[in-house]
Design goal:
- The protein is mainly alpha-helical.
- It has 35 helices and no strands.
- It starts with a helix and ends with a helix.
- The C terminus is likely disordered.
């Protein structure tokens, strides 16, 4: 009796223990489930992942239910944010499997999410296959939001596959969105519309649309929507070539994402920021961003994204003039893109190869690259690259002084131009023809083409293109002796480029105005603008990265030459010497700023020869630029100045250097006039001895 009672007590105790364990386990399961979602709301992704994985361990022996499927779906989203594509797809498939025979709407939604993951990882074929399976399922769902997501993904897939947006792809989405005023999805569609218009250079449409969206965005609760808007604004200013604004928007956006765990978004912003810094010639900062992104994608094993970053890195190598390194690698990455089936990137890399060859003055090789592209039977599907190949071939032909070939290319382009209304191509068509006529010295036809390009830019709201055309037209008007028109548009261009702080174009336009006055012998006014020009060029150099500064300095020295030439015509020996000394000091200052870098400027010798031709010269001593001096010698007007400045010259250079210079210019001297006007010089220099 006692034994039975004892057994019953023990059994009851075991049951109570088991019940207690079960209750504790259920509580632990519920706690991890709740804590995981609370962490999601707080943006604490690492905590969410830990809780959800603990949850899955606890329910490993329990059949999958709605809660577990929800955790699968949430894990797929979290891993996507952490840029772990394989894990994101794995958990998406687990959730999809559960809902396949239970809930068609959730099943379709998960498949769309999977397609989005595949697309962001650039698994384009897998994404296309997933989307192709969805229309029959979506018809059963009859859910407007799911259809909208489907059309948006198809639209994005078209861009990633072929490199251009197709408005026809997104029209069904806009038809579905009718009557959805004020909803986040409608705003998302408007942002996508703006993205299409940016790509098509419909800048006036974009400007008004982004203004409205920006005014509404402060009330949006959806962070993804706000991010999309900022990225769209950055893309707008990038196409307008106002890279300072682009960088500013992206830098501010990245700061916001540094406080969250959404790695995918963060990487997207970092990639665009690296491009923007490269465009601003912030080479060191851009390279740092590129290297970090490459290390990350290599560690993840994502070859598609790695290839995209390699493209930016190759662009960087070309931009800094590291052509040997570029040439060693470009074909390898073209082959890599071909092996991955990433044809859009294949064409991007080939065009980049042609651009780099042109910059490296290997224009025939560049033209060969573009010919290969133009006659590729598949390239017409990738219309952006097809058009650019024509444009770049014509530009390279002009640079190679093959104007007949350039005209032939533009005649081919004219057929394409008439059959395709593409804003980019229309702009480049007129720009290239304008340049071509200019180099043929057919200034009237050049003027006509630049005017068409200017008017076209005004119509679509392409500000950078409009003022670039003003700059081009100013040069043509100068050739056509349209003085009033020239000065009006040149000063209008200066006003705009000041507003956007574009020192490169400010240098160019001020130089053009100076040249205009110089050609009309208004030397004082020419000097005023040329001095401004060199100041802007110096500002551009000081704002640029070290690797860009050498190239800019070379152009800056060329500007100093123009100013020296002007002082020469003014018979201002001291001004000529002073500006040469200023060039020398800038050179030495820059050389000191760049540690362990040999300063090499190939065109310095050309500048020296030009100055000799104009009977002015620079003396380079202490290896290169330790002393710079312009000495002026002409037949008619300078001999008295020579006499006055002889002691000054002697003190600076020493008589031997001066005599060496005269040996090279002796045939231009009128000895009798020198003897009469400048006895001091004649006494010190035996010209007859020098001559023979």
């Amino acid at each position: 009796m006692r034994l039975n009672l004892l057994i019953r007590v023990c059994f009851a105790f075991v049951l109570l223990s088991l019940l207690s364990c079960s209750l504790n386990k259920e509580k632990e399961i519920k706690d991890n489930f709740d804590r995981g979602f609370q962490a999601v709301q707080l943006g604490n992704s690492p905590e969410s992942l830990a809780c959800f994985h603990t949850y899955l361990d606890l329910v490993a022996d329990i059949p999958v239910n709605d809660s577990t499927a929800t955790v699968y779906a949430m894990l797929s989203q979290l891993y996507h944010q952490a840029d772990s594509v394989e894990a994101a797809i794995f958990f998406s498939d687990k959730a999809t499997q559960y809902y396949s025979n239970r809930d068609t709407v959730k099943f379709a939604g998960l498949q769309l999410r999977k397609a989005d993951f595949l697309l962001e990882a650039l698994y384009l074929k897998e994404c296309a296959y997933t989307l192709d399976t969805l229309p029959p399922i979506l018809e059963k769902c009859n859910d407007k939001n799911l259809w909208l997501d489907y059309y948006l993904l198809r639209d994005k897939l078209k861009y990633e596959t072929y490199g251009y947006w197709d408005k026809e792809e997104i029209l069904p989405a806009f038809m579905l969105a009718e009557g959805m005023d004020g909803t986040p999805l409608l705003y998302g569609l408007k942002i996508r519309q703006a993205t299409h218009d940016i790509f098509d250079w419909e800048f006036k449409k974009v400007d008004s649309l982004l203004t409205v969206l920006d005014s509404l965005s402060s009330n949006w609760q959806d962070k993804e929507l706000q991010t999309d808007l900022k990225l769209c604004q950055a893309a707008y200013w990038d196409e307008q070539q106002d890279y300072m604004k682009t960088e500013g928007i992206l830098s501010k956006l990245l700061q916001q994402y540094d406080t969250t765990y959404d790695q995918t978004r963060k990487l997207q912003i970092k990639t665009e920021l690296a491009r923007a810094k490269l465009n601003r010639k912030k080479y060191a900062e851009s390279k740092k961003g590129i290297d970090d992104l490459l290390a990350y994608y290599k560690q993840k094993g994502n070859k598609f994204k790695e290839l995209e970053i390699q493209y930016i890195r190759l662009d960087y190598l070309s931009s800094v003039g590291n052509y040997n390194h570029f040439n060693r690698e470009i074909d390898y990455y073209i082959e890599m893109a071909e092996e991955l089936g990433y044809q859009n990137m294949v064409y991007q890399l080939k065009i980049l190869k042609g651009v780099s060859l042109k910059k490296d003055l290997k224009r025939e090789k560049a033209i060969a690259v573009y010919d290969e592209l133009i006659y590729d039977p598949e390239i017409q599907k990738y219309e952006k690259h097809y058009y650019y190949a024509y444009i770049q071939k014509a530009s390279s032909s002009i640079s190679n002084m093959q104007n007949d070939q350039a005209f032939e290319v533009m005649n081919d382009q004219n057929r394409i131009f008439r059959s395709q209304i593409n804003n980019r191509i229309q702009y480049y068509y007129h720009l290239i023809l304008g340049r071509l006529y200019y180099f043929e010295k057919d200034y009237q036809n050049s003027c006509n083409q630049f005017e068409k390009a200017k008017d076209f830019c005004s119509t679509i709201g392409y500000q950078h293109g409009y003022y670039t055309m003003l700059s081009n037209l100013s040069q043509v008007y100068a050739k056509l002796n349209k003085s009033d028109d020239f000065l009006i548009i040149a000063n209008e261009a200066i006003k705009y480029f000041k507003e956007i702080n574009n020192t490169k174009f400010l240098t160019r336009v001020n130089y053009d105005i100076g040249k205009f006055h110089f050609d009309r012998n208004d030397l004082i006014e020419a000097n005023k603008y040329w001095l401004r020009s060199v100041e802007y060029k110096e500002k551009e150099r000081l704002q640029a990265d070290e690797q860009a500064r050498k190239e800019i300095l070379e152009k800056e020295i060329g500007l100093y030459y123009s100013i020296q030439k002007n002082y020469f015509k003014l018979n201002d020996f001291y001004g000529c010497y002073s500006i040469g000394e200023r060039a020398r000091s800038k050179w030495m200052e820059e050389k000191l700023n760049i540690d362990n870098t040999e300063m090499v400027v190939p065109s310095i010798k050309d500048i020296q020869l030009q100055m000799s031709y104009d009977q002015a010269f620079l003396v380079f001593s202490n290896q290169l630029y330790s002393k710079t001096l312009a000495t002026l010698i002409t037949k008619d007007s300078i001999y008295c100045q020579l006499a006055d400045n002889f002691q000054y010259i002697n003190d600076l250079l020493g008589i031997e250097h001066f005599m060496d210079h005269l040996k090279g210019n002796i045939d231009s001297l009128d000895y009798n006039k020198i003897q009469h006007s400048c006895p001091v010089v004649f006494e010190n220099l035996d010209f007859h001895e020098l001559k023979y």
